[in-house]
Amino acid sequence: MPTESAFFLAALFVLMAAIGWGLRHLADRDRDNSPPTRVSADYMRGLNLVLSRRTDEALELFVQMAKVDDDTLETHFALGHLFRRRGEVDRAIRVHQNLLARPNLSEAQRHQALFSLGDDYLSAGLFDRAEKLFSELTESESHADAGLRKLIYIYEQERDWHKAIEMRRKLEVVSGERLPEVAHYYCELAEQARLDGDLAQAKTYLKSSVRTETGALRGTLIRAAIAEQEQEYAQAIGFYESVVETDKRFISELLPHLQKCYQAADRAAEFETYIKSVVSKDAGLARDIAYAAIVGELKDSEALRGCVERFVLTNTVLADLVNWPEIETLDETQRTAAIERISHGLRGLVLSSARFRCTNCGYSSQRLIWHCPSCKQWECVRPIQGFQFETLVA
Ligand SMILES: [Zn+2]
Questions:
Q1: End-to-end CA separation in angstroms for the chain
Q2: How far, CA to CA in Å, does 184 sit from each of 179, 193, 216?
Q3: Helix (H, G, I), strand (E, B) or coil at 360
Q4: What one-character DSSP code corresponds to residue 364?
């Protein structure tokens, strides 16, 4: 059902169009002394119908008017847009289809109507119909750029990365812009090939992804995963450590992989050295390492155990929840068991709350995603560092 504000806005459109039309025709009449047409009365009738909430009758009137006067065209586009914005997509489609049925539209007007109808279909979830219209527009002079951007949106939603790459390439030619998103599409293809077990194909896609800095971090992560899969542990360690070097927030995600690779390469002692060197360079990372160790239940490492214990014993929020003086009186074995119990509880807390957040729009998620479903930006979701104790009292 249309809302009060929809009626109000629609009425406003009609009123503005009527005033605009009135002024223009008064001026024309003064010039050529021609008699007034009936359009002004139709606008006023349309206004009355909208105000009295008889939207379907008002719509019929506007559709009829479009056959009469080109001056009404922009009002129809505005009304179609308004209907779509209010979720009344059927009415928006009706308006735009009627415009397209007019035989006397200029090419630019026809393309504008096609574009608007494509937007209606998108809003209605009719992607195949929208795709057809936007594809037609990629050949037009006025709407090639906008049509390509809509097609890219559709192919991103459908995860059709080959078509998305093709449209980005065309858009680069039309707009003259360099579009780094192509690197992400190749990363998507590479990751899919890796998951399908086709590592050679994954590497080929990765070569294509090295076009820009954007996507480089993700490309390195996929290379690391491939190397780990191929049991090339030294190479995998190099890739994982270079990602942490680039963006320290990833340490919580990559620590389990690093420990596994060091252990598989029979270099567990070097893992200890690595942890100590990371903490000595940036003491703040001890907290992130403790987080990773708790969430990943990482054991068999003196350095990790030290980070976890320091975190548990020095965290001010936990100090209010746990009886530290009592824990500190325990012997080594009991104390380790107590820390493990607390760690287990903290792990449950982390797993029940968001672990990743979009740095652009704040969208949060339980898993690492590269294309934010909310703001549609690429590579802006990052691991949340640390525990969200507020969920304890929520
Ligand atoms: Zn976002």
A1: 36
A2: 10, 14, 9
A3: coil
A4: E
Between 55 and 340, the higher pLDDT residue: 340
pLDDT exceeds 60 at position 23:
no
Q: How far is CA 178 from the centre of its chain?
A: 20
pLDDT digits (tens, 9 = 90+) for 30-61: 444 444 444 556 666 766 766 666 777 777 77
pLDDT at 354: 81
Q: Using one digit for the tens of pLDDT, what is the confidence trace for 124-135?
A: 999 999 999 999
Distance 368 CA to ligand 1 centre (A): 12
The pair of structure tokens assigned to 199 is 């590592």
**Residue 366 CA, ligand 1 centroid: distance in Å:** 14
33 has which bridge partners? Answer: none
How many angstroms separate the CA atoms of 304 and 343, rounded? 12
CB atoms within 10 A of CB 195: 10
| pLDDT recorded at residue 383 | 86
The residue written with tokens 């008889």 in the block is: 54
**d(Cα 218, Cα 367) in Å, to the nearest integer?**
15
**What does the domain layout of the chain look like in residue ranges?**
180-230, 247-352, 353-394
Kindly report the number of other CB atoms within 10 A of residue 202's CB atom: 23
CA 376–ligand 1 middle distance (angstroms): 6
66-123 pLDDT, tens digit per residue, is: 554 666 778 788 888 888 988 889 989 998 998 898 888 888 899 999 999 999 999 9
Output the CATH code of domain 353-394.
2.20.28
CB-count burial class (<10 Å; 0-12, 13-18, 19+) for 133: buried
CB atoms within 10 A of CB 269: 9
CA of 363 to the centre of ligand 1 (A): 5
Supply the pLDDT for residue 213. Answer: 55
Q: How far is the CA of 377 from the centre of ligand 1 (A)?
A: 6
By C-alpha distance, which of 312, 254, 314 is closest to 278? Answer: 254
- Give residue-wise pLDDT tens across range 264-304: 999 999 999 999 999 998 888 888 898 889 888 888 898 99
Distance 380 CA to ligand 1 centre (A): 7
Q: How far away, in angstroms, is 357 Cα from ligand 1 center?
A: 8
Ligand 1 centroid to residue 179 C-alpha, Å: 19
pLDDT for res 42: 67
Q: How far is the CA of 222 from the centre of ligand 1 (A)?
A: 22
